[in-house]
Amino acid sequence: MYPFHQLHQFSLNRAILNFNTDEKVLWADLVHFSRELNFPSLQADAGAFINWMIPFLGKKLNIFEFGSGFGHSAFWYFACNKSSSIDQVHLTERREDLRAYFEKLNWPDQWKRKMLYHQGDGLVYLQQQSQKFDMALIDGQKSSYQQCLQILSEQMKPAGLVFIDNMFWKGQILEQSVARSTQALIDLHEWLLTQQDFEVLFLPVADGVSVLRKKAI
Ligand SMILES: C[S@@+](CC[C@H](N)C(=O)[O-])C[C@H]1O[C@@H](n2cnc3c(N)ncnc32)[C@H](O)[C@@H]1O
Fold it and tell me: Phi and psi for 133 in degrees, rounded to 5?
């Protein structure tokens, strides 16, 4: 038996094999900033999964992200030639200092012009949108995940996918006495079981990813 961290490292290596030269440089900068800031970016195996799913979602994709940091997760939407499938990516980040890191990165032009970086509360931004989304990633404050989903249930296109990160919350969901953020995720697991608007799949990838598909009406 191999320890999980060795298998995890193997999956990370697989994920980055297909990057082109510019993507490898950008990836190294993203990893560098994550280390410098001790920032909890989306793990590579979750990112690689989302990247792999992009072609199945069609063309001219309109993507919303709740909790974007400096763009690490957004890298996965575009990498490995997925850029042409994407129309717009709405990034939302409430921390003011991270925008400077986002701007410092050497994004390819055809990616950058599709990324709308909103510094501020992602839920407020989402509520102001009248457009519909093909895909969303929920990766902001854990206690706001459910509220984000409630808003998104009106704003996802039929068959649109929502990815929710940190659904294992490093295993804390199994502890006896839990913090508020952890309780919010436990409640969310329960709440998802009752949802009529979405078909739900939980994947034990990285820190746990739930995938929701908006039902056609
Ligand atoms: C786990 S990090 C995710 C980062 C990003 N998805 C990535 O992979 O690099 C969570 C981020 O969500 C941000 N956040 C938390 N609540 C938010 C909110 N209400 N609106 C916008 N951003 C929020 C935090 O400031 C933090 O930078």
Answer: -115, 145
